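Hey, weird one. I pasted the proline--tRNA ligase sequence into the form twice and got a warning about non-standard characters only the second time. First submission, copied straight from the form history:
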Amino acid sequence: MSSGGGKGAAAKGGGGKGGGGGKKKEVKKETKLGMAYKKDENFGEWYSEVVVNSEMIEYYDISGCYILRPWAMEIWELLKEFFDAEIKKLKLKPYYFPLFVTENVLQKEKDHIEGFAPEVAWVTKSGKSDLEAPIAIRPTSETVMYPYFSKWIRSHRDLPLRCNQWCNVVRWEFSNPTPFIRSREFLWQEGHTAFATKEEADEEVLQILELYRRIYEEFLAVPVSKGRKSEMEKFAGGLYTTSVEAFIPNTGRGIQGATSHCLGQNFAKMFDITYENEKGAREMVWQNSWAYTTRSIGVMVMTHGDDKGLVLPPRVAPIQVIVIPVPYKDADTTAIKGACESAAYTLNESGFRADLDTRENYSPGWKYSHWEMKGVPLRIEIGPKDLANKQVRVVCRDNGAKVDIPVANLVEEVKVLLDEIQANLLKTAKEKRDACVEVIHTWDEFTTALNNKRLILAPWCDEEEVEKDVKARTKGDLGAAKTLCTPFDQPELPEGTLCFASGKPAKKWSFWGRSY
């Protein structure tokens, strides 16, 4: 456990149970826990500290690369379990394509590679010899896969072709690497599909986008807006891009949560992906690609974390309930330990992810701080008084509420509390996000809202030149403002409404702001 700048949290005591004790002679010297930085005072340092101290990541000796430890990987696996089951219902098949792609294939779709060119990492040597031609490491797999789609798709009977792979990709970012949020290598799933008709492709784009909304709102308890990206912000080489967008109130920045792209027939044209229709004529397929990444974990940390560390929504917490014995004075430690083992066993048998912390070289108070830092949703404490009263003391991580529960009702009560925490985290995050939304109509209102870290909803003429102009006019140390998305949920646009930036007639409402 990394020490966190020593705020003396180990001395916090034991939740009114005489904890923090343990017999003095049994307790070895403890590392003090706690956070050196506060979320509202120094968000960047706070975030770095949380992801390390909670044992999610470890920094690596190559900048922008991070070791994902079990506490992060288990969250990723829980999300994967849900998403994989859902896409299999849609008849997606698992594939794995190679990590490498040749230069001539990568450069086949010009707009596409221009969008990714600055981030592509190249292999140029094998041992001491130069390779005949450099080989790229995939920044995304369209160009890796589509030459083979062309080979596998011959007839309308071969459609739809729907594949998904869980893998890593490399994008050699140079600006502000941040664990989970912006890293040179990250994990993701990428779905790639081909259809006979645009209608089928359009339908799937939205089906997948809804699954991404569910990942964020139902699992990570992060509110998101579904919408469409502007032409300037869409996927390079695609027809249109939809996304779920989150917002971080502390920094006043939007963050793209996941994307679902309709590629149209552009790649089909470049890679000659055609099929013979029922009438014997050749037609081009319609394609989609879509992905979400380990960035989702970082968005969750930023949204819910507090000055004690991580706060995990129960649905993605690797451990949902931690059970801690609180023996003191001349308590019957054997009986207390037995009651703790029994509680953990009962909860695990009932389908919860529960664990027991019986380490004897740490005091209960230290353990409380440790598991709070790791964001475990519920802590159960059992001391002599609890044993005598056939109850357990339960403490909620999200709001610190303490409640005594009869052992006989343990399973039912824990279920209720975990459901409440899950719902409460989303509700609180939604309230904070909604409080940051500002509807504006003029350029002056826009710049004021931007400087106040707002998520801006503005009437826009939907012209690329105007968006470029807004970017240029807002450039500064904090980064330029851009469109985040045009939400599907459009407020009424009264006739005669003008674009906030150009004064031309507005065509739609769009979210604007700075972003990660």
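That's the output from the first submission. The warning seems to come from a hidden character in my clipboard, not from the data itself. The longest strand covers residues 253-264.
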